[in-house]
Amino acid sequence: MNEAVPEAPSSVESMAKQGCEKLGLEAFDALVRRARTCRRFDESMRVPREFLLELAELAHLAPCGANAQRLRFHVVSGAEDCARVFDELAWAGALKDWPGPDEGERPTGYIAILAERAVPGKPAAPITDVDTGIAAQTMMFAARSATPEVAACMFKAFTSHAIDAMGLDNDKYELKLIMAFGVPAETQVIDAIDSNPDGSINYWRDEAQVHHVPKRSLADVLV
Hints:
alpha+beta; NADH Oxidase; globular; putative fmn-dependent nitroreductase like fold; 7 helices; three-stranded mixed beta sheet
């Protein structure tokens, strides 16, 4: 029996979705859509150190420029150590009236991504910025793949004392990114690019505290 010819897609978005189904990408498509930045966590459910070490293992196996493997990873899991890192972070720049998560909603683990400096005190090789992004996204996807899910927040906004708070040598390592992890305690949704009531493309929260992330359509970003 001949297979029915699929109905022509009515939009670029539906064409992309049909492509995912045809190619067996549904699970990965769903993972990408739900792996949003999370800023509120269930602090009563701590992420085990062993889980964070597994994330670091996956990150260091990810592709990197020239296979130079310049990145280093530092895992923070104890409650007191996590509190010291938390104090060095700046949260959600687009949410002007929100200073960050309250006690009970804070991350229960961190992984710092660092790059070895070729010369003490000098910036690391530029390619390490690309390597950092690959490693960070690898860990975010891996965490969201877990059961129960673990969510993450990537931080480039941290104080100059953050590396000291982790007991690391600033002359030897350049702190590239801090990733916070925890069991999610908020809902994030992808929304239309014009969904923010203030007219911007900033992420926003509604009255139910659902976190909305405006995204352009595929048609808007294809050139």
